[in-house]
Amino acid sequence: MLLHHDDDGVVCIGQAAHSWISGQLARQWVPTPPPAVCLGAEQHDIGMAEWDRRPELNPDTGYPASFLELPLATHLALWTEAPERILSQSPYAAVLVSMHGHELFATKRELTPEIERYLREQERLQADLLERLGADPGEARVHQQLVWAMDHLALVGLIPEWAPEDNPVGDVSLHVEVAGERHVTVDPWPFRDDEIRLAYPGRRLTETSATEDELHARLAAAPWVEVEVRWTRLPRRA
Q1: Per the count of CB atoms within 10 A, which of 161, 201, 204, 229 is most buried?
Q2: How far apart are CA 53 and CA 45, in angstroms?
Q3: Alpha carbon 229 to its chain's center
Q4: What is the rounded CA–CA span in Å between residue 29 and residue 167?
């Protein structure tokens, strides 16, 4: 769950909605990536979709726990299930989802025995699928970098403190900055259109909740709204 605060309350944006934005960005990439790669970008947070329907309450805020506030056991369980949820759609996309989760826990979390076990399991899954598909691990790594970069671009519009940042995709390094409210700039510009505007659907909450039942009832009744983010080229400095 992504929580976007504005003057009217908090917009609760599901991780699957965010990853849908990632997939739309991937389809704008030049040249267009293979369909399974775009699917991997679009579904990289598939493990969160069911959780976001009835999210846990953060008792300190009265709002849903964001993806940054999930307990480690919950986070690991969701990411362990994620490749299996997309496997029947595309085994190659399942590889990319597995690699994305592996990168997340290997680079963004302090290693624990539980995380190390998860990493080993995902490495075995990736090796098995890649071998049975006859796919090139090096090419898969570049595709995983593309998914990671699109994920970051789809997040930084709502979490501006995550920029500036540089994301490698093969031989290219994308420099990402925030130019204003919900306005992200990228250099070099890798997309087909000169400007991209996409809207994140979410449910607006104007009151906090004391229990999860209360939270779920409020989410069920909350109005749907959209939060638009814009991506453009980074202006060249004189």
Answers
A1: 229
A2: 13
A3: 15
A4: 14
Nearest-angstrom CA–CA distance, 87 and 68: 26
SS3 24: helix
Q: What is the DSSP letter of 147?
A: H
Distances from the Cα of 43 to the Cα of 16, 95, 184, 192, angstroms = 7, 12, 22, 22
d(CA 196, CA 27): 12
Report the pLDDT value the prediction gives residue 194, as an integer from 0 to 100. 95
Please give the single-letter amino acid code of residue 45.
D
What's the full length of the chain, in residues?
238
Q: How many CB atoms lie within 10 A of CB 150?
A: 31
DSSP state of 238: -
pTM of the model: 0.96
Residue-wise pLDDT tens digits, 117-172: 999 999 999 999 999 999 999 999 999 999 999 999 999 999 999 999 999 999 99
The neighbour count for residue 199, using CB atoms within 10 Å, is 12
pLDDT confidence of residue 237: 61
Provide the 3-class DSSP secondary structure of residue 234: coil
